[in-house]
């Protein structure tokens, strides 16, 4: 039975590029085959519970703008929220969702009560997943909102907070497994510092390493088949966060011997905050073999914080999906809309329209990316650029068969004078422009 929250509305359908219906897809056509796979199976869209159903519309200067019938922090509110959430997943035809423990249940008086409340809601999710076919892309724990986590979770100076965080992650992994979640995400919202004056960097980093190692051990002990993902972000809410970017996370994983156990969930806005582009982070994760999943959104390029807007820059998204496809596409990962409405977008329909627009832009990006891959539009020129390395002598330099002095001798003997060649950046940019 419908909650009536979205009014009298039918499931969103694909109507093609010429449709002017704001409640229809113009590009996202789940069954359309792109590069040998259904669009739905490529993109693996997920709706983020927190932004769409838990966030009240506040900003640093003002509080709640949204009025939602489930906002009272009660179990009754939590149950209604679950009804509306699954209604929206179904209306959109979104195959997945993601949630934090704190998004779905009101905090209890103590750990055990919070856990019981979570179990009750997870029982509802389990039933709804069966009824609707909607699946859990990933579960996660909110280790940043409650004041107990203000100085960090795993990296807290107080071992009791470390313990509380460990118990929380164990619980959230358990429910993620129960719901057949395909990944488990750790975003270190408070794992960083506000000032070095009160922070022992070395100790905190080691605490984080131990914590993650225990999570990985536990995952194997319970036979959780999904991937463990770390979500890099350089700052906000703390001044500096330890999971700064993909490169930093990789160094951290190497340090603790976890580079084959943990992958990354890369968010567009976080890449921008780190001073990178989204495609830089994706390409690097591919190069390091740790690509897992994406949080799709966009940041305002002027405001300098994590604005989590719905994506709408198709050329940028085409390059992002280009790297996703070049890396072989998603395995356990997917496209999670870690995006929220602007706080003036008050209407229930705004929630649908925002996701429709985001999904359509992703579909356009994917289609452009697939054609670039198929035509070898970029990989062809790239191969050509490095073709010199196919010669026997070039290979010998890299395979350890030559010493520095051997190479020096050859340069003199063969009178080697490198001839600079064009990097052809504009040529390549013009190629991309043909596809987007
Ligand atoms: C916040 C993060 C958060 C994670 C999940 O900036 O993006 O939403 O995705 O904890
Ligand atoms: Ni995120
Ligand atoms: Ni974010």
Structure description:
The strands form 4 sheets. Strands 5-6-7-8-10-12-13-14 form an 8-stranded parallel β-barrel, surrounded by 4 helices. A two-stranded parallel ribbon has the order 1-2. A two-stranded antiparallel ribbon has the order 3-4. By secondary structure, the chain is α/β, with parallel strands linked by helices. It starts with 12 loop residues before the first strand and ends with a helix. α6 packs parallel to α7. The protein is 46% helix and 11% strand. A hairpin with a 2-residue loop joins β3 and β4. The chain has 2 domains: 363 residues, TIM Barrel; 55 residues, no CATH class. The chain is built from 16 helices and 14 strands. One nickel (II) ion binds next to loops. The site of one nickel (II) ion (NI) has 5 residues, from loops.
